[in-house]
Design a protein that fits this description.
Elements (H helix, E strand, L loop, with lengths): L8 H21 L2 H13 L8 H12 L5 H13 L6 H21 L1
InterPro entries: Anti-sigma-28_factor_FlgM_sf (IPR035890), FlgM (IPR007412), FlgM_C (IPR031316)
Protein name: Negative regulator of flagellin synthesis
Family: Belongs to the FlgM family.
Length: about 110
């Protein structure tokens, strides 16, 4: 047996042909994202969908309430910039352990 000679030339040629055929087919059909968009366009003309009042109220509530206290964020930014911000590692660890215990307790019951 000689080093550097590949005895599986036919197998490699077949794989190259398959790859070329798949590339050609992808070019004809487009990408997966294009297929999803096309199916979405056809689905738009299909079944009508109604949204309940409770879902609408959830959407409106999310637009009006902020998940972030911007005043607190600004105060923390200023404290970090001034160098007066300190981290209470004990309080953070206690909160993490409490949250993990709650999560594990809930997961164990289900």
């Amino acid at each position: 047996m000689k080093v550097g000679i590949n005895n599986n030339v036919e197998m490699l040629a077949g794989k190259l042909q398959q790859g070329a055929a798949q590339s050609a087919q992808q070019k004809q059909t487009g990408t997966a994202a294009e297929a999803v968009q096309a199916s979405g366009r056809t689905a738009q003309a299909g079944v009508p969908v109604t949204v309940s009042k409770s879902v609408r109220s959830l959407d409106q509530g999310s637009k009006t309430s902020a998940d972030i206290d911007l005043a607190k964020v600004q105060a923390m930014r200023e404290a970090i910039a001034n160098g007066s911000f300190s981290v209470n590692a004990g309080a953070i660890a206690d909160k993490l352990l409490a949250d993990a215990g709650m999560f594990l307790g809930t997961a164990a019951r289900t």
